[in-house]
Write a structure and sequence with these properties.
Length: 148
């Protein structure tokens, strides 16, 4: 009986720790939410995991929108030009709304995106995560979200 109590207590401690330290854990890029801060991976191919951070700690990216590409399942992946057009339209508008400045009018921040690899696209994934980062790839220590 005492063994079960210890096991249950350990599970509880792990669950509470995961909840408290969620912002500091490495996690799936697909689990990012608007307003989450993270480190943008140095290599931009097949991103699966990112390092989460509280926005008041050093980080290099901040999620500003989650988009869904409208292409139907079974449609081949978009060409580079089609994808760039979609990202410019969707992430560009999100950038202005989230940060409050025109991406072309300032020279500090820019936006990027995580989008499905061709194999994931072919499996029906259309989710796109738009994020902001510093052009000089420097760290940020506050949220870049404009005040409401």
């Amino acid at each position: 009986m005492q063994g079960w109590i210890i096991r249950i207590a350990l599970v509880g401690v792990v669950a509470v720790g995961a909840l408290i330290f969620r912002d500091r854990l490495s996690g799936s890029a697909g689990e990012l939410k608007v307003g989450d801060c993270f480190d943008v991976p140095a290599v931009q191919t097949n991103i699966r995991d990112v390092q989460h951070h509280p926005c008041n700690e050093s980080h290099t990216g901040e999620v500003m929108s989650l988009e869904t590409h409208p292409a139907a399942k079974g449609v081949p992946p978009p060409s580079d030009a089609e994808l760039i057009t979609f990202l410019t339209t969707q992430c560009g508008a999100s950038f202005f709304q989230y940060v409050g400045v025109d991406a072309n009018a300032q020279e500090v921040l820019d936006y990027g995106a995580f989008y499905p690899a061709d194999s994931d696209w072919n499996d029906g994934d259309r989710g796109i995560t738009c994020y902001a980062y510093r052009l000089d790839e420097g760290a940020m220590t506050t949220s870049i979200r404009k005040a409401p």
